[in-house]
Amino acid sequence: MIKDNQKYFNRMHVVIDAVVIIISYLAAWLLKFVGPFSGDAVRSLSFEWYMTALFGIVPVYLILYYAFNLYTPKRVQGRRLEFSNIVKANTVGLLLLIGGIYVLLKEINFSRDMLFYFYFINMCLEELVRMAIRYLLRDIRKRGLNQKHILLVGYSKAAEGYIDRILENPQWGYQIRGILDDNVEAGTTYRGIKVLGRIANLMVILPENRLDEIAITLGLSEYYRLQEIVAMCEKSGVHTKFIPDYNNIIPTKPYTEDLLGLPVINIRYVPLTNTFNAVVKRLMDIFGSLVAIILFSPVMLFAVIMIKLTSPGPLIYKQERVGLHNHTFMMYKFRSMEVQSKESEKKAWTVKNDPRVTGIGKLMRRTSIDELPQLFNILKGDMSLVGPRPERPFFVEKFREEIPRYMVKHQVRPGLTGWAQVNGYRGNTSIRKRIEYDLYYIENWSIGLDIKIILLTFLKGFINKNAY
Questions:
Q1: Is position 178 within any domain?
Q2: Transmembrane region positions (predicted)?
Q3: What is the torsion angle, in degrees rounded to the nearest 10, for the CA atoms of residue 69, residue 246, residue 404 and residue 446?
Q4: Is residue 180 within a helix (H) or strand (E), and if so which, with residue range?
Q5: Number of other CB atoms surrounding residue 353 within 10 Å
């Protein structure tokens, strides 16, 4: 039933896309030759000629949408990935149109403006339509319709994690029928999902053909049975997937290499270990820090004057921090506290209403002005514009023993701002949650993510309510 519904849905989706392409094309023609942007547009070609081109444009675009995975199920497909595929498909479509019209047909009178209007209108309408379909499907699935029925094979942490995510996202439209396991007693439940019996019961359950998917969620100690269970599942023709129980070892997506046919799974994929990526990020840091130093020079001058007028001592406060590959460096900040001995400052957090913080220091901490000298750390190469925030050696030694995977953050340069900070984890907040966000950043780094974090830093402001 699910497969039939999916085929019907895909056919309807193709029809909707064809209509959207036609509407976008007509809108582009009207905008160019009739609407407010028409100006002195000359119609060298007839309306009928332009419309005839649709007989080639529509099928080409539908093929491109299929090639760029725009007809895959939307249960757990991300919106950003889908929009990215829309942009890619339309960009390739535009290039094919330009090549076909001006190179193959040599029709130089075809409006170039109209093609670009069509490009942008079609992308926007396709995204709006897909958003509407996505919300409609989620609403239908929340009401218990259009469901996929799944059986889990193996009771493990992976099974519990999978159940947690399915139950927390009813819009995905998954129904877990139960669990089969040889080591847990039948009738045992986890969040309402029962252990139905032993794995051998697959031989009875699969021929009934009432399942849409089998999810193999064996514990690590039972991986020796994987080949046997996969063989049983594949005989039935039911779609089978494997959810590995190594979350405590490989917490997010692994990086797989092909070593002459032998799959090699790296424990963690760090894009910035790639030389090209590292060079691009470093160039961005140099350019960005220079621009920021120029832009914020009046603010830094004001801070220097106020520190000098209100408190005796040095203008710049230098503190040892742990950076890339566990190497230490001296991080610069505007001094916001009274001068104190190194021993007394080394092991103490700043607390709310801390008497050591000066009057101007409170303002600088609250508005993050005290962090601006770190732009020179970035220029030197100690830090990056974006990355996990660096910590003092004493706390690094403390957290490396208390928090799993804490030291992974030192595989990249520390940053002036970061993914954890723009998500609210600054100052006196959970270190564990901060590390989760830092790990996500490290494993999913891209130029786009860096730009997004920088923009969010400005949009959300520099005010830190947790800075004391």
A1: yes
A2: 12-31, 51-71, 83-104, 116-137, 286-307
A3: -20
A4: strand 174-180
A5: 7
On the 0-12 / 13-18 / 19+ scale of CB atoms within 10 A, 245 is: buried
Q: Which two tokens stand for residue 192?
A: 């309402």
DSSP string, 191-210: TTEEEEE-GGGHHHHGGG--
Domain that holds residue 15: 2-142
Q: Which residues pair with 149 in a beta bridge?
A: 175
Pairing verdict, β 415-417 and 328-334: unpaired
- Give dist(CA 141, CA 174) in Å, integer: 8
Higher-pLDDT residue of 34 and 40 is 34
Tell me: do 351 and 384 sit in the same domain.
yes
What 8-state DSSP symbol labels residue 100? Answer: I
Answer yes or no: is 412 within a domain.
Answer: yes
Least confident of 89-93, 145-149, 176-180, 436-440: 145-149
Task: Kindly report, residue by residue over 364-411, the tens digit of the pLDDT.
Answer: 888 889 899 999 999 999 999 999 999 999 899 988 888 878 888 999
* Residue in this structure with the two tokens 């064809």, named with its chain if needed: 18
- Residue type, position 129, single letter: V
- pLDDT tens-digit readout, 244-270: 887 666 656 666 777 777 777 776 778
> What is the spatial distance between Cα 206 and Cα 215, in angstroms, rounded to a whole number?
13
Name 318's bridge partners: 332
